[in-house]
Design brief:
Strand order of the largest sheet: 6-3-2-1-9
Order of helices and strands: HHHHHHEEEEEEHEEE
Strand content: 15-25%
Number of helices: 7
Structural class: alpha+beta
Radius of gyration: 19 Å
Helix content: 25-40%
Length: about 230
């Protein structure tokens, strides 16, 4: 990997990583690009991060998407927003949450550790709304059974709560976390039986009353989803 240039302001190093991975808001992205034009050191940081992230993915085998994926996406886009699903929402999620993005979750660990060779989690997911209004990065460490979750954007509506669910193929949703007001990151230790179902499962966020669902199953709208992928 390319050595990262030594700079005095470590905040710029973090910003450069976020820029390369597309984690900035539109306003942050514009402001950063304005700085790039007159800052050679910042441009060097961006180039170094880009090369390092490419190196991290060199050994990941390519997987062709299913042939009918695009048709399924187009069919979903054609559905009216008010359409009521015929099946429970968690069953439908398993059908379209294919090929979830784990790069942002991996990037969170790289950036927050401030090193190019951090301990990398075995599984990760990017849990996001279709309009990116809500985004969370999640990463799972098999050895400790710990699921780390970081908020990237969005929050619960006033007087409501965000509840996280794990949905394994064929199983009903299992609540794993009710997001605390104002929280930025949370760690959850999953029981071994539940952790074993995490690879390939879907993580979803629903809108719930304060304190979470009173029924033990999702009662509100699905706000964001992401499939767990091997890193």
């Amino acid at each position: 990997m390319t050595e990262t240039p030594d700079i005095r302001d470590d905040d710029d190093r973090i910003l450069a990583a976020e820029y390369v991975l597309g984690l900035m808001t539109p306003a942050q992205h514009r402001a950063f690009e304005e700085r790039l034009g007159g800052d050679a050191a910042l441009r060097a940081l961006v180039a170094a991060w880009a090369e390092d992230f490419v190196d991290l993915t060199r050994d990941i085998p390519e997987h062709a998407p299913p042939q009918d994926l695009w048709r399924a996406i187009e069919a979903r886009l054609d559905q009216p927003m008010t359409q009521t699903p015929r099946r429970p929402w968690y069953v439908s999620l398993l059908g379209y949450a294919v090929g979830g993005v784990a790069a942002a979750a991996l990037a969170w660990f790289v950036v927050t550790s401030q090193t190019l060779t951090p301990p990398v989690p075995e599984f990760a997911a990017q849990i996001a709304a279709e309009d990116a209004s809500i985004q969370f990065a999640a990463a799972y460490d098999v050895d400790t059974g710990t699921l780390q979750v970081q908020r990237q954007s969005g929050a619960a509506a006033p007087g409501r709560a965000l509840e996280f669910w794990l949905i394994a193929d064929g199983d009903a949703p299992v609540s794993i976390l009710v997001w605390p007001d104002g929280g930025e990151s949370e760690a959850v230790t999953l029981p071994a039986e539940l952790g074993a179902k995490l690879p390939g499962a879907v993580l979803a966020i629903s809108d719930e009353p304060p304190g979470g669902s009173p029924t033990g199953q999702p009662t509100g709208a699905v706000l964001a989803v992401g499939q767990v992928q091997e890193v």
